[in-house]
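General statements about sequence and structure are easier to judge against a single worked case. In the encoding step, the backbone of a single protein was reduced to a row of integers, each denoting a local shape. The record that follows shows the chain in one-letter code together with its fold in token form.
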Amino acid sequence: MLELPVVSKIAPGCRAFNAGVVLASVLFSVILISYFIPREVAAGYWAIIILLCATFLVASIYYVIKSYKIIIVSSLNITVKYPLLRKEIVIDYSEINNVNTYRIRRDDNKYGTIFSQSFLIELADGRSISFSFQDYLNYDDLKAAIYKYKLGIGA
């Protein structure tokens, strides 16, 4: 019986989306604040402000490009697509050495207890690919499909 592949569904609160929102808000804030600073005072600081904004812009764009990925889990292999880089990685199940789920719990005075969960796939050639619970709406489906096809769990 042919099974349909499990395709990742990007969560609206994923890290790539959040980085883009932060970038836009910082640039908007700098532009807005620049209208209220006297020209004489701002003249000496513009080079520093522009340098910091440009650095933040480049770092944010790089982070968005590298972190945005689509994961397709089929019975034959796992395909990881980086659409913004036009790159695709195909992983056969025979190449996988280990799969693990990592859970992190951090107590934060401001936000209370913060939980995070990531799924790590370790390959025979030393590379690894991970994806986080916060980035995908169907994280559990992706994880279950990988366990099913790699280890036969839940088959």
Summary: The chain has two domains: 15-65, 70-151. The helical segments are 15-34, 39-67, 139-151.
